[in-house]
Specification:
Length: about 200
């Protein structure tokens, strides 16, 4: 079962299938009957526990918003669902990389030696995470972005599409690195940073 029925849910449904799961359906706040790349929307989010009692054991998070994804991941685990890490067969993953529960790794992603992707994280299409990086809970590394070695990304931070982070830089919790930015210095928690070099321009 996939939680969510929007654009991000589409890629999660297809990822789950490519990992060998049959997707029985999606749950969403809007339960209007429809299909998400062939998976039916079968009810609202609060139907999760009845699916569990009907024998559905696995859940995946099709929600892009980091804070909401973390909250729902924790709730699903408390109900008793298992949230496996989903790693595309078309990702390149070092044998020493660690991908924690509920995290997803999309096609074209590269995870290098001894990096760690925290619970409920997203390493999106063609993003790369190099050696010794540490990603917290519910981080999103957007498509085509690149983390050099030993980068630290705090919980729920968002690394925007096509951005880059220099070696050893820390991105604070709940920070956003804007699309196309290049972070060469640490980015404080709860800030939005854009440009090259990236500068914090707002507090969230
Ligand atoms: C940084 C970001 C979060 C800002 O969003 P926002 O707060 O809605 O900002 P706005 O669109 O109102 O833009 C505010 C100003 O910042 C500028 N700006 C916004 N994003 C920028 C970026 N990535 N780089 C440089 N400047 C940017 C805008 O041009 C605008 O400048 P102006 O005031 O001179 O006109 C957003 O633009 C962004 O880059 N998001 C990343 C999205 C992404 O990668 N998603 C992945 C989904 S898979």
């Amino acid at each position: 079962m996939v939680i969510g029925a929007g654009g991000h849910a589409k890629i999660v449904v297809e990822l789950a299938r490519s990992c060998g799961f049959e997707v029985v359906g999606c749950l969403d706040a809007d339960d209007t009957p429809r299909f998400v790349v062939g998976a039916p929307v079968i009810g609202r989010d609060d139907m999760a526990s009845s699916l569990l009692s009907n024998g559905v054991r696995f859940a995946a998070l099709g929600i892009g918003n980091n804070r909401v994804r973390e909250r729902i991941g924790v709730e699903l685990e408390a109900l008793g669902f298992s949230l496996p890490a989903l790693i595309s067969p078309n990702a390149v993953v070092s044998p020493s990389a660690e991908v924690e529960r509920g995290a997803i790794v999309m096609p074209g992603a590269v995870l290098n030696a001894e990096c760690r992707i925290g619970p409920f994280g997203i390493v999106n299409t063609s993003a790369s995470v190099d050696h010794d990086c540490r990603l917290g809970i519910a981080v999103h590394i957007a498509p085509g972005s690149r983390l050099a070695g030993s980068v630290i990304v705090g919980d729920r931070a968002m690394i925007g599409v096509g951005s880059a982070v220099a070696p050893g830089v820390s991105i604070g919790a709940d920070a956003v690195l804007g699309a196309g930015a290049t972070a060469i210095h640490d980015i404080p928690s709860n800030t939005v940073a854009v440009g090259t070099p990236a500068r914090a321009r707002a507090t969230r």
